[in-house]
Amino acid sequence: MQVLIIGGTGLISTGIVKHLLARKADITMFNRGQRAAGIPAGVHVLNGDRNESGVFERECGSRQWDVVIDMICFTPEQAKTDIQIFAGKCRHFIFCSTVCTYGIKVPPHVFIEETFPQEPISAYGKNKLLCERIFLQAHHDQQLAVTIIRPSNTYGPGGTLIDNLEFDPVAWDRIERELPVLCAGDGLGLWVATHRDDVGKLFAYAALTPRTFGQSYNATSDAHMTWEQYYQTVAGILGKPADLRYLPAGQIWARDPGRFGLLREITAFHGAYNSSKAQRDVPEFTCEIPFSAGAAELLDDIRHRKTWKTGTNDAIYDQLVEATARM
């Protein structure tokens, strides 16, 4: 199986490559070559910028592929270029979208399925939805056999362990120092975090699976948590108590909209998804890594990479903690 991954060195891509190699696939990556370290032996690399006129088409469009997986398509223009290059030149096209395309409404039965109305609120989600529609139209027009995969919060070595407020939080250092940590609302909102190796299975085993053609799938674990449980799990890994303090989400992001953009657009809202459709159509997609084990692995990796973020001398965070005493 000849597979082209556009991107290939990111978090989810690492999991995809692992499982494609287990399937004995012949893998080629196309990327800018800025994260070459750690690419497995035997994986071919084409270097270039997909947005540079002519380079993408010259490097990737001159041959036939069994599967093309685009991990870094973020705009409608990029989606249209994919179709121009790969229509008639690949047997299966897989697009990495996002659950952010669903927006922030809560479904009657709590868990969001693939048929839930897509009403994104962020620019990221809106652009991904436009891309989805372009690809599905190409599928309908028989230009490409397309599959859409929508991951949620994916974590693993090489990345960060988000909290309820930030992509790269100070919360874990504060828990280790036994300082109070912030959580938005009442801490009872639902969340799901899925290890990159589990998410990667869906991409790798959906490849060339005809029943996935023309379909969209959530790619999340079944193990949902409240944010309070999420913090308590990480605190247990660190061996320290979690002194949680609660504030309304709006009060937190108003203090620093840039810093708390994750909360403003994503984590302040419902985040529970049903991935049973993916499990039905791709039986290999089983989420086997519990959050407690995966988070412990990632925290060790963050220390090893010396990217542990300190929670001291943080005036904004301390002021928000002080505000909880007045609630």
Question: Can you characterise this structure?
Answer:
It is a single chain. The protein has 327 residues and is α/β, with parallel strands linked by helices. It folds into 2 domains: 2-154 and 193-219, 3-Layer(aba) Sandwich (Rossmann fold); 158-191 and 223-324, Alpha-Beta Complex (UDP-galactose 4-epimerase, domain 1). Helix content is 37%, strand content 17%. The protein is built from 12 helices and 13 strands. Helix 1 links the parallel strand 1 (2-6) and strand 2.
Write a short abstract of this structure:
Helices cover 37% and strands 17% of the residues. The chain is built from twelve helices and 13 strands. The chain is of the alpha/beta class and 327 residues long.
Keywords:
alpha/beta; UDP-galactose 4-epimerase, domain 1; seven-stranded parallel sheet; Rossmann fold; 327 residues; 12 helices; 13 strands
Write the layout of secondary structure elements.
Layout: E1 2-6, H1 11-22, E2 26-31, E3 44-47, H2 55-60, E4 65-70, H3 76-86, E5 90-96, H4 123-140, E6 146-151, E7 153-155, H5 171-176, E8 181-184, E9 190-191, E10 193-195, H6 196-206, E11 216-219, E12 225-226, H7 227-238, E13 244-247, H8 249-255, H9 261-267, H10 276-281, H11 291-304, H12 315-324
Parallel strand pairs: 1-2, 1-4, 2-3, 4-5, 5-6, 6-11, 7-10, 8-13
Antiparallel strand pairs: 9-12
Helix pairs in contact: 1-6, 3-4, 7-11
The CATH homologous superfamily of the largest domain corresponds to: NAD(P)-binding Rossmann-like Domain
Parts with pLDDT < 50 across at least 5 consecutive residues: none
Rg: 20 Å
> According to CATH, what is the topology of the largest domain?
Rossmann fold
- Inertia-based shape: globular
Query: Could you say which structural class the secondary elements and strand pairing correspond to?
Result: alpha/beta
C-alpha termini separation: 59 Å
Beta-strand share of residues: 15-25%
Mean pLDDT: 96
- Total separate domains: 2
CATH class division of the largest domain = Alpha Beta
Annotation field: number of helices: 12
Q: How are the strands of the biggest sheet laid out side by side?
A: 3-2-1-4-5-6-11
